[in-house]
Each structure stands twice: as structure tokens, then as C-alpha cells.
């Protein structure tokens, strides 16, 4: 089940997302998700671990049919205030999604794997319900900011005490273990400890800068390959009667 945000956690997370000092970082993270996911207007997407709904805003701006799911009722209450009736919201867990196979064109997990109980199962579920691409956004384990958050979680009672941090390489290994050699693209933003200002934000917008593997926020897009199920053809044996010439009876093979 993982860690479920309580009321105070939800308020603290919403305050963190809306902090004016990190709005440049928020915009970089949103742009990275859209650039890697490359969604088409009118298609459907599932935001797994949608939280307070801020991660759904750029998806709605792209005119996507958005569905969000989160295990915390307090996060969902804030999400309803954030997106109104523009998205379909559900309560549920990333490891057990209540949706059919290939129910959505895309899926995304934005700072979600950090708090689930079984990250591999959560990825498997995302790959199951999506048809085209899946975006995974993580707090980078090997970023300076990631190290700071991990230390802060150990020293103080913050939500990061319950978080599990990943690196790009760890996440790629999990993806390849689940799907094989599928196309994977990654980039990072927020290379410095402090949230970037406007000038640094422009510099961080360049793809060459985003190829640095140590940015605080890392995004990975997975292109899903079609899967085909094969069913063995059952063969039925049918005996024939002896011919008039007295030849030995033969048996014919017929597909069922």
C-alpha cells in the first residue's frame, strides 16, 4: 500500500507546490513531462498518484481527457478544488489500478514511485493500462537536492522520511526488466540545490543541459510496444473407414 498522505501532509504538499520561490522549477518539471510524453489533444491519460491535482493542469491545458487516481482522500479533496470537473478522480492504489488493460492512451507517475510499497508492481500496472507511452517523474537519488531531502527526512518528521529515492539507472533497469528492450528517453531539470531563477530557468530549458543525469527532477518516457497473444491451434484426429480396395485405414488431421 505504501505511504498514504494524511491531512497535514496534503496541506504541506500543496503549499510546497504553490510556493512562489519554486514556480520556475514547477514550470520546468511540467514542460519536461509534456516534451517527453508528446501527448496528442483529445487522447486519454491516467495520472497515477495525482495528489493535489497540480500535475494534471498541464495535461488539461493540452486538451487531454484526464483521469486521476490517488490513495489519499485529503489529496483528492484538494485536487477537486484544483481541477474542478475537468478531470475524473478516483481513490485507489498504484499497485492495483481499477481499470481495464489499454484503457488509456498514456499514463504518468509524477513523484509517485517514491511513496508506493511495490514500485515494480506500480510500473507494471501503468504499463498495463496504457497503450502508447508512460511518463515517470522522480526525485533524483543522485542529485544534490535529492541528497538534501533524504538527510532532511532522516533528521526531521517530513514526508521524505517515508520516501524511497531512485536514480535514472535504477528506473531504467526496472523498466527493461518489465518490458524488455523498449524505447526509453530521459532528461533532468533543476541542476542546482536552490530553485532556479528566470535566467537559470532559461538555461535549464536547453536539451543539452537536461542531459546531465544529476538534476533534482528526472523524467523518463517509455514507449510501449504492442503485445500479441497467440493461441495454439488444436488438432483433432478423425479416423476414416477402409477403402473399397482393402487398403489400410488412414487418419486425417483437421483443425478444430
Q: Roughly how much helix do the residues carry, as a percent range?
A: 25-40%
Query: Can you tell me the number of structural domains?
Result: 1
- Give the oligomer, counting copies of the same chain as homo and different chains as hetero: single chain
How far the N terminus sits from the C terminus, by CA atoms, comes to 46 Å
Order of helical and strand elements:
HHEHEHEEHEHHEHHEEE
The largest pleated sheet is described as: 7 strands, mixed
By CATH reckoning, the class would read Alpha Beta
What is the CATH superfamily label? Vaccinia Virus protein VP39
Assess the beta-strand content as a share of residues: 15-25%
Class from secondary-structure proportions? alpha/beta
CATH architectural designation:
3-Layer(aba) Sandwich
Number of strands: 9
Radius of gyration: 24 Å
What does this structure look like?
The protein has nine helices and nine strands. By secondary structure, the protein is an alpha/beta fold. It has one domain (7-229): Vaccinia Virus protein VP39 (Rossmann fold), CATH 3.40.50.150. 38% of the residues are buried.
